[in-house]
Amino acid sequence: AQSVTQLGSHVSVSEGALVLLRCNYSSSVPPYLFWYVQYPNQGLQLLLKYTSAATLVKGINGFEAEFKKSETSFHLTKPSAHMSDAAEYFCAVSDEAGGFKTIFGAGTRLFVKA
Amino acid sequence: DAGVIQSPRHEVTEMGQEVTLRCKPISGHNSLFWYRQTMMRGLELLIYFNNNVPIDDSGMPEDRFSAKMPNASFSTLKIQPSEPRDSAVYFCASTPGEGRSYNEQFFGPGTRLTVL
Predict the structure, then answer these.
(1) Residue of A3, A4, A44 to mutate when probing chain B, most B C-beta within 10 A
(2) pLDDT tens by residue, B20-67
(3) How many whole angstroms from its chain centre is CA B69?
(4) Which of A69, B9, B16, B48 gives a 20 to 30 Å CA spacing to A93?
């Protein structure tokens, strides 16, 4: 069975500081991994996804994530936080055997201090 | 492209009333998902359809909840009778099923339901 664990329900960083949001997954088959972002009063939107083509995945707004099979991790990073990055971030996993059913983590709310 | 469309955006009703939430997926997408989001439980998958057929409804809370997808361009989620604990934001999402974005979920703006 697939599962996703996001470490830390809240993360606070200063503007300009490194952003690191942690995600570990469990999957019995090669997974597809995603990061989605949710801004207040909006639906989720895709930041980036891993589909085995490359272990370092670049997404929108300067975010990137690295797939590490040995650590079963897919952590999200951004070198320099901006105030507009304040949102909730969800890590997710799916596989073709699941018919594209996607399992979402509990989410991490990112706060950016001026 | 208009994106996933949900209606209404906000719904306030009284306990015991029937509530119907509507979703129009992106044209050409072949999978549709209904989620519920609350502070306590986070984002929960309620049910999903593939080519209009319900595939997994194990997340539907109880018999008061039902979902239909009569055609590729429309789905409903109905709660009858509604209860205060059903208060949440309900999201609909669709997936292309082919192409570069084949397994990406495209979310609608959500329906905020308040049951008094």
Answers:
(1) A44
(2) 999 999 999 999 999 999 988 889 999 999 999 999 999 998 899 999
(3) 11
(4) B9
